[in-house]
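Hello,

Following up on my earlier ticket. Below are the two sequence lines again, exactly as submitted.
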Amino acid sequence: MKIYKKPGFWLPLILLVLVGLWPILTKNAANREVVSSILVSVTLASSLNILLGYTGYVSFGHIVFFGFGAYTGFYLMSVQGWPIYSAMAMAGLVPAILAFLLGKAILRLRGAYFALATIGVNEAARSFVKNFEPLGGSVGMQLNFQIYKDYGGAAQALWLTFYLMIGVTLAVVIVSYLVRFSKFGLGLMAIRENEDAAEVMGVVAPDSKTWAYVISAIFPGIIGLLFFFKNATILPGDAFRLHLSIETIVMVMLGGAGTVLGPLLGGAGYQRLRGTLLVTPLFRNIQLVVAGVMLLVIILFIPAGIVGWLRDRFPRLRRVLE
Amino acid sequence: MILQIQNIGKHFGGLQALSQVTIDLPQGEILGLIGPNGAGKTTLFNVINGVYAPSEGRVLFLDQDVTGSKPYRLAKMGMARTHQIVQPLNELTVRENVMVGACFGEENHGMVRAAKIADEVLDFVGLGERKDQLALNLNVAQKKRLELARALAARPKLLLLDEVLAGLNPSEIAGMVQTVAAIRERGVTIIMIEHVMHAVMNVSDRIVVLDYGRQIAEGTPQQVSQDPKVIEAYLGDPKLAEEIATRVD
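Thanks for your patience. The regenerated structure is below:
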């Protein structure tokens, strides 16, 4: 069956477009910022889901690709004067190459050992960037505001960034759908369920895992560039936030790991919740505690996440919720 | 020869699990592999299909040296196996489990063709009704069939069956024996590890007996069942020894 006939393919895309249209129709910059942060979350969660949900490998360092992609693109734009589109391409390509090399090295580790290695990678990346002067070292880099002129002024540039973010998020959701229902995706899920049995059946696990890792690294890099382009400044501490890696795991688990729609709901839901907590005096400083408690509750009571739970509870929804 | 096992030895630390095992397997044969518990039968399977690299010796599959090759490489060459301890992909449906076999085996099918093959194979092993259930919801006998279905979906040239009859009741055993015979009719070469003596004696062309990792006997079911060394090896299990000794159909 062709994918464009499947409701499960269209539902996430329609939801995304509706959310994206809201600031455009209201022409409101504040709404735009709210939706931007949701788009960043959804992109991170959907990307991580390809590794965590489909392949079953927990990565605590996924934000490395966000940071590296952002730094790569930012450097090319601010120092080399590249236009945003080719910088975006590189912001996806460089993390992909990094993931390929990293994958060759650490994807032979399984379970907890892989997870530990990814934490190491995150810390190593931050220290490297912090001490690497061409990338600005610990003070990071700033964009010259002149650069926005190429895109019709600062206001126009911000809207353009927003449209690009919608495009990237749609792309990651489409890719995640295609992977989920492809032969490649079937191999990944076989690895998740039982890597040894999968290999016996002919799944070339080392290659499949590496490609899953590579795909999951591309979009965080691109969205990272857009995020910091919008802010006009990039710092090592902002680009490589370990806790954002963990929050991304919460988003995936909340929505439903291994589903296409799950990371979208989880990313949007968690981001909204975080936004609310950050402006609530009681929780302002302890919003991460809430994330931790949520993760605990999800794993204990609804390990399949929102989408998994709905699919279990209402089998009729399965055609739509994928 | 589809498979040649030459002087295979395997040790785990100080434990010699296999030594000097040599077997030639012609195309189309069913070879029964028997022996007491811990004799090294499953270890031999693991060496044949690449889960373990042997400490000594060589394995030739389709006249190529595949010693130490990865399991997925052997799967792509046309080897499939079932596991003694079932290894279902729990959170996938029964059909998806079988599709993995069809998709990633030698024939390398796409998803649509694989789904068709999966449905055929599931009907063949009698799991057609359950194809949309998650594999974790099957009982043990059904999981055994699922193992077999996954292996068959790859349409292998060589099939390694590790105790597919264990845990089945007599009528299920009869059904499975027929299934194995039907698989052979398709020209598949089979090695089966089995403890259910009457079944393996009936269905095999030839039997190899392992004990403490050594090949203590080899021959037709009749020859093997009268071999004093075989009977001695099974003496710890008098009932089974008797069954072997009286088993001359």
